[in-house]
Design a protein that fits this description.
The chain is mostly helical and about 220 residues long. The protein contains 11 helices and 2 strands; from the N terminus they run H-H-H-H-E-H-H-H-H-H-E-H-H. It is globular, with a radius of gyration of 18 Å. The relative contact order is 0.17. Bound molecules: heme C (2 copies). One heme C binds next to helix 4, helix 8, helix 9 and helix 10.
């Protein structure tokens, strides 16, 4: 009975939920329906809210000289450095929670791809330690990799590997993070390709937020 009540309540909430005005500038790229037409845009639906807050503020400041309080994090990308300042400081957490609360979408539903997952690459277990089994994270500040777009994952791993310092005068993208930069440091392009293909082929899963409410993406 209790489980049923929760499910009914959450269904009602989902229908009645208003669109968050502060998130409007982001939806033309990150909205669920837009992603299909935007192969270069990562899905941020269902990612950890604290992780999203970190990324938005990192893009806003473009360069964070001494870390963002919790951990050292720097990120530069021409599109997002222009977009992120559209969110007012006071709205960042609400926008992050808005996207974190949406059901995730798997890359193969957007981009197609093999029905079968490629075999797990050697040493992928060390990624699971932080990113969760098959890349479905249960940790704050750590993004899920399962079902993220293959090319996006590839480019991020290369950015972690190839960014030795953030130089704002250099065109293009760069990214550093005190935990993740070390993880990417020794990967070859071939290893990066295999890791990106493996995680992109996994089915994403939005973390369960209330008892009795199942949040598998379409039951796959
Ligand atoms: C014109 C398209 C576009 C718009 C509009 C846009 N983004 Fe993005 N977003 C991108 C692209 C492209 C990337 C990938 C950046 C990279 O490769 O580092 C990205 C990356 C991100 C990421 C990092 C995802 C991750 O997994 O680390 C976050 C968070 C994000 N965007 C939030 C937002 C928010 C919030 C807004 C609204 C202010 C917004 N974006 C508007 C294109 C867009
Ligand atoms: C010690 C913990 C840890 C380990 C181990 C780890 N990561 Fe990460 N990873 C992180 C954290 C934390 C972030 C978020 C970085 C940030 O905030 O910019 C991250 C971010 C990423 C991203 C960017 C995702 C996005 O949405 O932009 C990719 C891709 C990634 N990791 C892949 C891997 C792979 C592949 C492995 C295994 C070779 C791995 N990670 C091992 C902690 C870890």
């Amino acid at each position: 009975m209790v489980v049923l009540a929760v499910a009914v309540l959450s269904d009602t909430a989902a229908v009645a939920e208003p669109l968050l005005a502060a998130a409007a500038p982001c939806l033309s790229c990150h909205g669920r329906d837009q992603l299909v037409r935007k192969p270069g845009v990562p899905s941020i639906l269902g990612l950890d809210a604290k992780y999203l807050i970190h990324q938005i503020t990192a893009f806003q400041r473009e360069f964070v000289p001494r870390g963002s309080g919790f951990t050292r994090l720097e990120r530069k990308h021409p599109v997002m450095n222009a977009q992120a300042p559209k969110i007012k400081r006071a709205d960042v957490a609400a926008v992050a929670r808005y996207f974190a609360g949406r059901p995730c979408v798997s890359a193969r539903d957007l981009d197609g791809g093999p029905a079968e997952s490629p075999p797990p690459p050697p040493d992928v277990q060390r990624c699971f330690v932080c990113h969760g089994e098959a890349g479905r994270s249960h940790h704050a500040f750590v993004p899920s990799l399962a079902g993220q777009r293959r090319n996006y994952l590839r480019v991020q791993l290369q950015a972690f590997r190839d960014t030795h310092w953030v130089d704002m005068t250099r065109p293009g993208r760069s990214r550093t993070h005190n935990m993740m930069s070390r993880q990417g440091a020794y990967l070859t392009d071939a290893e990066i390709d295999d890791l990106a293909a493996y995680f992109a082929a996994q089915s994403c899963r939005t973390p369960v937020r209330a008892p009795g409410v199942s949040s598998w993406d379409g039951g796959r």
